[in-house]
Design a protein that fits this description.
The complex is a heterotrimer. Chain A has 15 helices and 16 strands. By secondary structure, chain A is α/β, with parallel strands linked by helices. Chain A folds into two domains: 69-80 and 346-438, Aspartate Aminotransferase, domain 1, CATH 3.90.1150.10; 83-338, Aspartate Aminotransferase, domain 2. In chain A, 61% of the residues are buried. By secondary structure, chain B is an alpha+beta fold. Chain C has 14 helices and 13 strands. In chain C, strand 8 (292-296) and strand 9 (299-303) form a beta hairpin. In chain C, the strands form three sheets. Chain C has a seven-stranded mixed beta sheet with strand order 1-7-6-5-4-2-3, with helices on both faces. Chain C has two domains: 76-332, Aspartate Aminotransferase, domain 2, CATH 3.40.640; 341-461, Aspartate Aminotransferase, domain 1. Chain C has helices at residues 42-53, 76-82, 85-88, 100-117, 129-146, 164-171, 189-195, 218-227, 319-355, 376-382, 386-394, 423-442, 444-448, 461-466, and strands at 121-123, 154-158, 175-179, 200-205, 231-235, 255-259, 276-280, 292-296, 299-303, 360-361, 371-374, 402-403, 412-415. Classes of the chains: A alpha/beta, B alpha+beta, C alpha/beta. Chains A and B meet through loops of A and strand 4 of B.
C-alpha cells in the first residue's frame, strides 16, 4: 500500500491465475536466476507512512537557512512571483499530463506553449522560439551545432559569460569534438580588439552574455558587427527581465538568442528546475533543436495547435539529429508565460526599472561606506566591489549573514552584488551600514 | 507505380536523365509515395561538389526524413529553388520536379533501367 | 478558444509591485521596440488558464498507458514537500553550511538510488533522460580518451532503440552501428559479435527492451562488449519493470541513466521538468560531472571529480524534482520499490492475456511492464490503422498507448498500465479496446474520422509543417 498499488491480495491471485503463473516471482522467469535480488533485497531502509515521510523530509528542509534578504545573483535571481503563477502551475491537468503527442486532448499545453513562444519572441525581438530547453547554459551550448558547417568549425565565447555556462559549453564541445575558444576580458567586458583578431574564416559563432557575468552591459551592437564581419554567427545570452528595458538582441544584430527564464516566475530552488529559451531568425528556424509548437486547422476548420517541424528531432532523425533533446521544461515555460501575462509590458518594465534603480542606489551607498566599485561601465542590476583579501570578504559576508542577509557572490578579488525589486531601501541601507562597520 | 521508360534509376530511388552532358536528378514515384506528404527539402547550393553514393540533401515529411543520394559525381550547375516554396510538387510531379542538375559529370553509380528498377521496387515493397 | 493576446484591453493589468523607494535610475540606452504582452486582469488571466487546463488530459484524469513513459500516479505528498520554502527559497550559491538539508536530500537519494541501480556513484545534474544519456555516453568517451585509446569511435545501438540513443551517440562524436534485433525482439548475439571490435567504445541498451521483453542473454551481451574492450550503458527508461528485483549493475552495465519522472513518480508537467539521474561504477566516478555531494562525519559538502567531463548543466540539476523523487523513495522503501515493479509487470501481463484473443501481440510471451500489439492484420482486413484506433480511444476519454514505437513493430501500439492502476480500470479499458476492434470491422469510417468529441479533431500536421505559424503576430 505504501507503493500506491491498489491491487489487493485476492485480486492478485485472480490476475496471476489468468496469466497462468504461480506467483509474482514467476513473472520474472526469463531473468537469469543468479541476477535476482534475494529476499534480503535492496540495502535501503523500509518505506514509511505518509506522516513519517512528511516529518523526515520537512526535517531536511528545516536544516536549510532561508535568508530574508538576498543580494546574490550570479545566475539565480530571486524575484517577486505573483500568486497566479503557482495557482496555475499547480493545477493537476498541467502537472500530470505528458508531452502533447495526442494533440486533440492536449490543446491546453500546446496553446500555452505557443503563447510562451510568442512572448519570448516579443521579449527578444526574434522571429521564432522553441518550446524551451533545459536551462540557459545548455541552450547556449546547443547553439554551436546550429552554427557549425563544413568550413566554420570553431566556437568562441566571451570570458565574461557565466563561468558555469562556459563549463557547460566546454563539456558539449568535448562531446562533439569542437574547439571552443575563450575571448579574453578587458575592464569587465569582452576585449573587442582581441575578438577582432581571434575570429578567422573558420569561426562558426561567438557567444556574448548581456548583461555579462560581472553585471556589465556590453557594447553588443559593435561586437555583433565584428562577429558578422568575420562571417560568423552572433549568439546572445540574455537576462529576460533586462530585455524589457534594453535594446532588443534583434536590434543588436543577434542571429540566435538564448537565456535562462528562471527570473520569470520560478523559485531559485537550489538551482533547478530552471528554463532555457532559444529564439532565432526565420532563416535559421529549422536549425533550432527541441520541440516547437505550430498553429494549424483541424478537419472542421477550427484553429488548433500541434508539435511541428518534427523532422528535426531525434525520434525521426535518430543519429542524424543535431540534438538528442526529447523534452522541454514545459511546466516551467507555462509558469513563465503566466508570469509575463500577469506582469504585462508595464509590469515587466517596472520590475526591470526597480532592479536597476535599487542596484544603482546600493552601489552608491556601498561607495559611501568605503567600497570601491571595480568596473566603471554601465550595469543592469549586478556589480562588483573590490575586497583586499579573501578574509576581508569573509568578514563582510559573515557580518551580513548574521543579520539574515545573503551577501554578494564571491568573484576573483571581489564581491558580485545583485539587487532585485524584492529588496527594500531599508534593507539596502541596513546592508550598507553593516558593510561600513566591517570595512 | 509510375516508372518512365526513358529514365535511369538508382537502388535508393532517385532517377537520372542525361540531357547532353548535364545529369538531371530527382526522386522516383516510389520514393515520394513512401515518404508521404513532403513538407520541406534541404537543397544544396549551385557550385557544390557532389559524390556518387553520398547524400546531396534530404527530404522531410511530417513523420520521416530521407536522404537524397546523388547517383553521380560532379559539380552542381543548377538547383530547382522553386522546390523550397513548393516541396509538395515532389509528391504531385516527381518526374517533373527535378532537384539538381550536375555538369560536368565525372562519375556515375551503377544505375538500373526502368525494367530492372521495377523489379527492384517489387522486391522492396 | 482565444489566445491570451486576443483577450483583455489596453489599460487592464495587475498591481503587483510598489512604487520605487529609491531614486529612479534610467539606463542611457533603453528599449524602443514595442513589447507586446497581454493586458489582462487577474480574473481574465485565471479564466484563460482554467480554460486551457480543461483542454488537457493528465494522469489525474484517467488511464494513461503510454508505453515507455511510465505514467504512474504522482503522489501529492511529493508536491507538498517540493513546495516547502526551506527548499524553494534556497539560492544555489549560498554557503554549503547553510544548505545542509539540501545536500542531505541529494546525498540520501543518491545513495539509495545507487543501491537500486547497482552503481557506486550517482549525480542528479542532468535535467532529463536524454540529457542523462548524453552524460552517460560522455563518461564512456572520457574513459577511453583518458586511456589514450582514440580508436574507439563506434557505439552499438539495437534497431529497437529509442531515437535518443543514436542521437546521443552522434552528439558525442561517435559513429552509430545499428544492429538488427532477432525475431524475438531481443539482441541478435551473432550480429552483436560481428559488430564488436577494437573500435567499439560501447553499447547502449535498455533491459527490458523497448518491446517489453527481458533479454535473458543480458550477461552474455555485456560480456561480449566488455571482452572487446567496450563499456555498457543502460538506458533506464524501463527500470520500472525491474527495480528492487534486478539491478542494472548486476546485469553487467557500467553506467546508467534513470528517468526520475518515469520510474520515481515525479510529474511529467506536460513534457518537463524531469531529471535524469546518472549512476556509474567506481572506476568511472572520476569522470562524473561535478560537483558530487559527499558526506564526512554527518557534514555534507561538494567534491569535484578529478577528471570530470565537466558540467552538463548549471548548478546541481533539477533539485526540486529530486525532492519529489526522494519523498517517493522514502515512502516506498525497500519493499515498496520491489512491490511497485512486480505489480507493474503483473498489470501489463494481465492486460496482455485479456487482450490477446482479440489483438495480435507482437511477442506472445510473458512480458515485463509493457507489451506491444501490432495492428498490421487489422489494417489489412479493415483499413483501420493504429493511429485510427488510437484516435477512436479519445472519444472514450482514454489516452491512447504509445503509437508507432518501437520501429521494429509495424502498426505498433505499446501499452504500459503501471502498478498504480486498479483491476477494474484495466477491465474497463480492455472492454473499450475490444469495442473499438469491433468498430474497426463494422464501421471503419467512424475510426478514420475519429475523434469526434474532442475540442479539436484531427489536425493538419502537413499544413503546420509546410506553412509554419510558430507565434502569434500582433497587428
Amino acid at each position: 500500500m505504501g507503493s500506491y498499488v491498489p491491487t489487493t491480495a485476492a485480486e492478485r491471485e485472480e490476475m496471476l491465475a489468468a496469466i497462468g503463473v504461480k506467483d509474482l516471482e514467476g513473472l520474472y522467469r526469463s531473468v537469469p536466476q543468479e541476477m535476482l535480488l534475494k529476499d534480503g533485497g535492496l540495502n535501503i531502509p523500509e518505506g514509511l507512512s505518509e506522516l513519517e515521510v512528511r516529518e523526515a523530509v520537512t526535517a531536511m528542509a528545516e536544516k536549510n537557512r532561508v535568508f530574508k534578504t538576498v543580494l546574490r545573483g550570479a545566475g539565480a535571481y530571486r524575484h517577486f512571483i505573483p500568486s497566479v503563477v503557482k495557482s496555475v502551475t499547480s493545477r493537476e491537468e498541467l502537472l500530470t499530463c505528458y508531452t502533447p503527442y495526442q494533440a486533440e486532448i492536449s490543446q491546453g499545453v500546446l496553446q500555452g506553449t505557443f503563447e510562451f513562444q510568442t512572448m519570448i519572441c516579443e521579449l527578444t525581438g526574434m522571429d521564432v522560439s522553441n518550446a524551451s530547453h533545459y536551462d540557459g547554459a545548455t541552450a547556449a551550448a546547443e547553439t554551436i551545432p546550429m552554427c557549425k558547417d563544413r568550413k566554420r568549425t570553431k566556437a568562441y565565447v566571451s570570458a565574461c559569460a557565466h563561468p558555469q555556462t562556459i563549463e557547460v559549453m566546454k563539456t558539449y564541445c568535448f562531446a562533439s569534438n569542437t574547439e571552443l575558444i575563450v575571448v579574453p576580458a578587458k575592464d569587465g567586458k569582452t576585449d573587442m580588439d582581441a575578438l577582432r583578431d581571434m575570429l578567422g574564416a573558420d569561426a562558426a559563432c561567438f557567444y556574448l552574455q548581456q548583461p555579462n557575468y560581472l553585471g556589465q552591459l556590453e557594447d553588443a551592437k559593435a561586437i555583433g558587427e565584428i562577429v558578422h564581419a568575420a562571417g560568423a554567427k552572433f549568439v546572445m545570452g540574455v537576462n529576460p527581465i533586462a530585455c524589457a528595458i534594453l535594446p532588443t538582441p534583434r536590434e543588436e544584430g543577434a542571429d540566435i538568442v538564448v537565456g535562462d527564464g528562471q527570473p520569470l516566475g520560478l523559485d531559485t530552488a537550489f538551482g533547478g528546475p530552471y528554463l532555457g529559451f532559444m529564439a532565432t531568425t526565420n532563416a535559421m528556424t529549422r536549425k533550432l533543436p527541441g520541440r516547437i509548437v505550430g498553429q494549424t486547422k483541424d478537419v472542421d476548420g477550427r484553429t488548433g495547435y500541434v508539435l511541428t517541424l518534427s523532422a528535426r528531432e531525434q525520434h525521426i532523425r535518430r543519429e542524424k539529429a543535431s540534438s538528442n533533446i526529447c523534452s522541454n521544461q514545459a511546466l516551467c515555460a507555462f509558469a513563465a508565460g503566466v508570469y509575463m501575462a500577469a506582469m504585462g509590458e508595464q509590469g515587466m518594465k517596472q520590475c526591470a526599472r526597480l532592479c536597476t534603480s535599487k542596484a544603482h542606489y546600493f552601489a552608491a551607498e556601498l561607495e559611501k561606506a568605503g567600497c570601491t566599485i571595480r568596473y566603471k561601465g554601465e550595469f543592469f542590476h549586478e556589480f562588483v566591489t573590490e575586497v583586499e583579501c579573501p578574509n576581508c570578504r569573509k568578514k563582510i559576508l559573515d557580518a551580513l549573514e548574521a543579520e539574515g542577509i545573503l551577501g554578494g557572490a564571491e568573484v576573483d578579488g571581489g564581491i558580485l552584488w545583485c539587487v532585485t525589486e524584492l529588496v527594500s531601501k531599508a534593507q539596502l541601507d541596513r546592508a550598507a551600514a553593516i558593510v561600513k562597520e566591517v570595512q | 507505380m509510375n516508372i518512365p521508360a526513358e529514365l535511369k534509376y538508382s537502388k535508393s530511388h532517385e532517377w537520372v536523365k542525361m540531357d547532353g552532358d548535364v545529369a538531371v536528378i530527382g526522386i522516383s514515384d516510389f520514393a515520394q509515395d513512401a515518404l508521404g506528404d513532403v513538407v520541406f527539402i534541404n537543397l544544396p547550393a549551385e557550385g557544390d561538389e557532389v559524390t556518387a553514393g553520398e547524400a546531396l540533401g534530404d527530404v522531410e515529411s511530417v513523420k520521416a526524413v530521407s536522404d537524397v543520394i546523388c547517383p553521380v559525381s560532379g559539380t552542381i550547375c543548377e538547383v530547382n529553388e522553386a522546390l523550397a516554396d513548393a516541396p509538395e510538387t515532389l509528391n504531385s510531379d516527381p518526374y517533373g520536379a527535378w532537384i539538381i542538375k550536375v555538369s560536368p559529370v565525372t562519375d556515375t553509380e551503377e544505375l538500373l533501367d526502368a525494367a530492372a528498377y521495377e523489379a527492384h521496387c517489387a522486391q522492396e515493397g | 478558444m482565444k489566445l491570451i493576446f486576443e483577450l483583455g484591453a489596453e489599460g487592464r493589468g495587475m498591481t503587483l509591485m510598489p512604487e520605487c523607494d529609491v531614486p529612479e535610475y534610467t539606463l542611457p540606452e533603453e528599449r524602443t521596440a514595442p513589447l507586446h504582452l497581454p493586458h489582462v486582469s487577474e480574473n481574465e488571466l485565471t479564466r484563460h488558464y482554467t480554460a486551457l487546463c480543461k483542454r488537457i488530459h493528465g494522469v489525474n484524469d484517467g488511464f494513461y498507458p503510454l508505453g515507455s513513459c511510465t505514467m504512474k500516479y504522482n503522489p501529492k505528498i511529493d508536491e507538498d514537500m517540493a513546495a516547502l520554502p526551506g527548499f524553494t527559497q534556497l539560492h544555489p550559491l549560498q554557503p554549503a553550511e547553510t544548505a545542509q538539508g539540501a545536500l542531505e536530500v541529494l546525498h540520501t537519494l543518491g545513495s539509495e538510488l545507487g543501491e537500486v541501480f547497482g552503481m557506486d556513484a550517482v549525480t542528479f545534474q542532468p535535467a532529463a533522460g536524454a540529457h542523462g544519456e548524453f552524460t552517460g555516453v560522455l563518461l564512456i568517451k572520457a574513459y577511453h580518451t583518458d586511456r589514450g585509446d582514440f580508436n574507439r569511435t563506434k557505439i552499438i545501438v539495437p534497431d529497437s532503440a529509442h531515437g535518443t540513443n543514436p542521437a546521443t551517440a552522434a552528439m558525442c562524436g561517435f559513429q552509430v552501428v545499428n544492429i538488427p534485433s532477432g525475431a524475438d525482439g531481443c539482441v541478435d548475439l551473432d550480429a552483436l559479435r560481428a559488430a564488436v571490435g577494437p573500435d567499439t567504445a560501447g553499447l547502449m541498451l535498455t533491459n527490458p527492451n523497448t518491446v517489453g521483453i527481458f533479454d535473458k542473454n543480458i550477461l552474455e551481451i555485456t560480456k561480449i562488449v566488455h571482452d572487446a574492450g567496450g563499456l555498457c550503458y543502460y538506458d533506464g527508461a524501463n527500470l520500472n519493470a525491474v527495480m528492487g528485483v534486478v539491478r542494472p549493475g548486476d546485469m553487467g552495465f557500467d553506467c546508467i541513466h534513470s528517468n526520475l519522472h518515469k520510474t520515481f513518480a515525479t510529474p511529467h508537467g506536460g513534457g518537463g521538468p524531469g531529471a535524469g539521474a546518472v549512476g556509474c561504477k567506481e572506476f568511472l566516478k572520476k569522470y562524473m560531472p561535478g560537483p558530487l555531494v559527499v558526506e564526512n562525519d554527518g557534514k555534507y559538502g561538494f567534491e569535484y571529480p578529478e577528471k570530470s567531463i565537466g558540467r552538463v548543466k548549471m548548478f546541481y540539476g533539477n533539485f526540486d524534482v529530486v525532492v519529489r523523487a526522494l519523498t517517493y523513495v522514502l515512502t516506498l522503501g525497500k519493499s515498496g520499490i520491489r512491490e511497485a515493479a512486480m505489480n507493474a509487470v503483473l498489470n501489463a501481463n494481465y492486460m496482455r492475456v485479456k487482450l490477446k484473443d482479440t489483438f495480435t501481440m507482437a511477442y506472445d510471451e510473458i512480458c515485463m511492464h509493457e507489451f506491444v500489439m501490432s495492428l498490421v492484420d487489422l489494417h489489412k482486413e479493415t483499413g483501420v490503422s493504429a493511429l485510427d484506433l488510437a484516435k477512436g480511444m479519445l472519444d472514450f476519454g482514454l489516452h491512447p498507448p504509445t503509437m508507432y514505437f518501437p520501429l521494429i513493430v509495424h502498426e505498433a501500439l505499446m501499452v504500459e498500465p503501471c502498478e498504480t492502476e486498479s483491476k477494474e480500470t484495466m477491465d474497463e479499458v480492455c472492454e473499450i479496446y475490444r469495442k473499438l476492434f469491433e468498430l474497426a470491422h463494422t464501421d471503419p469510417e467512424a475510426l478514420h474520422t475519429a475523434p469526434h468529441d474532442t475540442p479539436v479533431r484531427r489536425l493538419d500536421e502537413v499544413g503546420a509543417a509546410r506553412n509554419t505559424i510558430l507565434r502569434y503576430t500582433f497587428a
